[in-house]
Amino acid sequence: MTDTMTAIAVEGGKGPAEALKPEEIARPAPGPGQILIKVKAAGVNRPDILQRLGGYPPPPGAPATMGLEVAGEVVTAAGRWKVGDKVCALLGGGGYAEYAVCDARHALPIPRGLDFVQAAGLPETVFTVYANVFEHGSLKAGETFMTHGATSGIGVTAIQMAKAAGAKVIATARGAAKAAQAKALGADVAIDATSEDFAEVAKVEGGVDVVLDMVGGDYFAKELDALKTGGRIVFIAALGGGEISFPAFRIMQKRAVITGSTLRPRDADEKARLAAEVERVVWPWIEAGKLKPVVDATFPLREAAKAHAHLEGGEHLGKVVLTVD
Length: 325
Hints:
Blueprint: E1 4-10, E2 20-26, E3 34-44, H1 46-52, E4 69-76, E5 86-90, E6 99-103, E7 107-109, H2 116-120, H3 123-136, E8 144-147, H4 153-164, E9 168-173, H5 176-185, E10 189-192, H6 198-204, E11 208-213, H7 219-226, E12 227-235, H8 248-254, E13 257-260, H9 268-287, E14 295-300, H10 304-313, E15 319-323
Helix pairs in contact: 3-4, 3-9, 6-7
């Protein structure tokens, strides 16, 4: 192991996808309770794009290099991990590199039957869905769940996890082809939001108990209309606009809960708690075949710019992953 490594930097500090360039930087040194991972694959996520554009700075103490999830081999041991263990891990940053460090509690064993590429696409999406749908949204078996962005990394994961938990799933997507893909992933009802009113379809289906909203904007009013009494709307992004009209009396009448969260700024102990819950609840679903990682495309680490452009194009189904030789 050398003292330097290849990592991806943003030329000029922020910019378009083309600003992503490989550079040689110092290999990180793990601190107390941290493991060093030789990265084999790294997931690409929308928060990475926001960071590249200058809108989502890393939390204090996190590497400036982007990358929120990796899979690879442990080369410096800590906690329950020994050298040579194959893990996937949730990071505060630093995944777009040949080596990454993380709190040993934030790493999980690669589920049986998965390779590094598949495993690299798990942590960010699975942790996000579990925290927001099952903890904040309190989704239970027998309830009806709605997700937007059905073919995104989050959408693909949310559909499968909700089905694994015994919920009915309504998924929306932009275009008939994407709606068909959502249906193939297991959604009970798949709606083309460009030609159908998802609120009207959801009401015909009996209404919705939990909505995972990454759109915001004018979707909120429709979600509230489709929501059952006592239902929950959980925000994880606002791609359609961060400002919403808040009809207080309508919310009171429906006894609706409006909540949301981010994952990256949570403290280390909270992420460790969440990791343990994901391993307890979600990992058995993966090993039972109820949740299957869907990887749309892979790119070599040095071609991170192409990976970002592909994700921004919006035609992907599932995850985009960087591979490291």
